[in-house]
């Protein structure tokens, strides 16, 4: 079956403007243009639009979607299986949050007692799931499945008070690092304070601390573009500065 741009927009629940834009950026071209100048879409384009909307639902940027769907090696079945896995992860996050809300309502009505830890389980699980989606493969390869799982269990087991300390320390690490970066001296007092705060921050989730692992993580902050982007969004070069400060702190460099 074929569709005009208007009919396809109605079928998919998007605007004709969106479809025109997808055509403009090259991620969804019409099958043909008819004699009247209308865009006409066939089964192949309908399927591609479905995939695009799956990716959009998962928060994937349009330029990335273009890389996926325009790749000659693009595998429809594998893509759908991946969509399903990601949506199941999202479903798990939502179910955890709904469960937390249900418990909170029941506790407020006096039907159950809810521990402080349970009040924050849904939020902590969401953070873990998001981090695992971004970095899980790399950190498992570097530190092993057991270490990563122990780290996640430690974070999930935090009390409300401990979790608040963790959040405050996260901000303090970044604030101190930004101040230290201005000194341009990774061996200086402020930079070494940032490195020590970073060690304290790791202790909230790491099963045990070692200087070697700390230094390895610092190097990953530079080598992996996603980690690097997290620190460099504050100031380009900050990831390397933190790496250098940590290498000095752990005694893994002569700098």
How is the secondary structure organized here?
Layout: E1 3-4, H1 5-12, H2 16-24, E2 32-33, E3 39-41, H3 43-57, H4 62-69, H5 76-108, H6 116-119, H7 121-143, H8 145-156, H9 160-183, H10 189-203, H11 211-223, H12 225-232, H13 238-249
Antiparallel strand pairs: 1-3, 2-3
Helix pairs in contact: 1-2, 5-7, 7-8, 9-10, 10-13, 11-12, 11-13
Sum this structure up briefly.
With 255 residues, the protein is an all-alpha fold. Helices cover 72% and strands 3% of the residues.
Task: Explain what you see.
The protein has 13 helices and three strands. It folds into three domains: 3-69, Multidrug-efflux Transporter Regulator, Chain: A, Domain 2; 76-137; 159-249, Globin-like, CATH 1.10.490.50. The protein has 255 residues and is mainly alpha-helical. The chain has helices at 5-12, 16-24, 43-57, 62-69, 76-108, 116-119, 121-143, 145-156, 160-183, 189-203, 211-223, 225-232, 238-249, and strands at residues 3-4, 32-33, 39-41. It is 72% helix and 3% strand. A hairpin with a 5-residue loop joins strand 2 (32-33) and strand 3. Strands 1-3-2 form a three-stranded antiparallel beta sheet.
**Oligomeric description of these chains:** single chain
**Into which percentage range does the β-strand content fall?**
under 5%
Distance between the termini: 67 Å
Largest sheet: 3 strands, antiparallel
Keywords:
Globin-like, 72% helix, 13 helices, 3 strands, mainly alpha, Multidrug-efflux Transporter Regulator, Chain: A, Domain 2
